[in-house]
């Protein structure tokens, strides 16, 4: 009887891992860990992307002055646990009672659309697409998310001040690699 319970528990754990564990560990090693330029407070304006045990991270540094960061992140899997972090001055919505006092957007949806707007901040999220537009100055803004399902890619289209960035203003992974262009994707193999 005990052996049957143990086998049932193992089978359930495997099923849960397959259903919710998604694609962990299968992403390219080049995107693992925080870019050293970001970690050392490099301060160069642009985007910093990485993957770690907590999921994917995309941070924007404005350098000096104010910049508008806009982009779209797509997958053929499903985004879950989407959160924004460290947003200048308006880190929480005061006008939306359902999220008042919480991080400016926090989406953990199984399906459907969600969107939030505040001065200088916009985000629209669906299971397979995240659109953002932040006007920020002086400090880093960030998005953290996880991917579940059988995602084969995560694609990025990143702009600053209404135009695609030169590749040397986008860093990813612990070695601070640069993509070929501001439109790029990581494939899950």
Major sheet attributes? 7 strands, antiparallel
Number of strands: 13
- Strand % is 35-45%
Cα(first) to Cα(last) distance is 40 Å
User: Total domains, how many?
Assistant: 1
Structural class: mainly beta
Helix/strand order, N-terminal first: HHEEEEEEEEEEEEE
Average residue pLDDT: 73
Shape by Cα distribution: globular
Provide the gyration radius in Å.
18 Å
Count of individual helical segments: 2
Helix percent reads 10-25%
Q: Poorly predicted ranges (pLDDT <50, ≥5 residues)?
A: 2-25, 88-112
Describe this structure in words.
The protein has 189 residues and is mostly beta strands. The protein has one domain. Helix content is 12%, strand content 42%. It has helices spanning 2-20, 36-39, and strands at 46-52, 55-61, 66-75, 78-85, 106-107, 114-118, 121-126, 129-137, 141-148, 153-160, 163-164, 170-172, 183-187. Strands 3, 6, 7, 8, 10, 11 and 13 form a seven-stranded antiparallel sheet that branches.
């Amino acid at each position: 009887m005990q052996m049957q319970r143990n086998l049932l528990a193992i089978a359930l754990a495997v099923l849960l891992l397959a259903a919710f564990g998604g694609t962990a560990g299968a992403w390219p090693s080049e995107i693992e860990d925080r870019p050293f330029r970001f970690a050392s407070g490099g301060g160069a304006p642009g985007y910093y992307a990485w993957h770690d045990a907590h999921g994917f991270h995309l941070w924007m540094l404005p350098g000096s002055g104010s910049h508008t960061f806009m982009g779209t992140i797509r997958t053929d899997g499903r985004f879950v646990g989407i959160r924004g972090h460290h947003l200048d001055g308006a880190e929480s919505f005061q006008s939306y009672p359902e999220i008042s006092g919480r991080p400016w957007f926090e989406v953990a949806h199984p399906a459907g659309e969600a969107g939030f707007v505040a001065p200088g901040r916009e985000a629209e999220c669906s299971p397979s697409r995240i659109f953002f537009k932040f006007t920020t100055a002086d400090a880093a803004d960030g998005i953290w998310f996880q991917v579940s399902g059988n995602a084969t890619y995560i694609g990025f289209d990143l702009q600053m001040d209404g135009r695609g960035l030169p590749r040397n203003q986008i860093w990813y992974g612990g070695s601070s690699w640069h993509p070929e262009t501001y439109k790029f994707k990581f494939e899950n193999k």
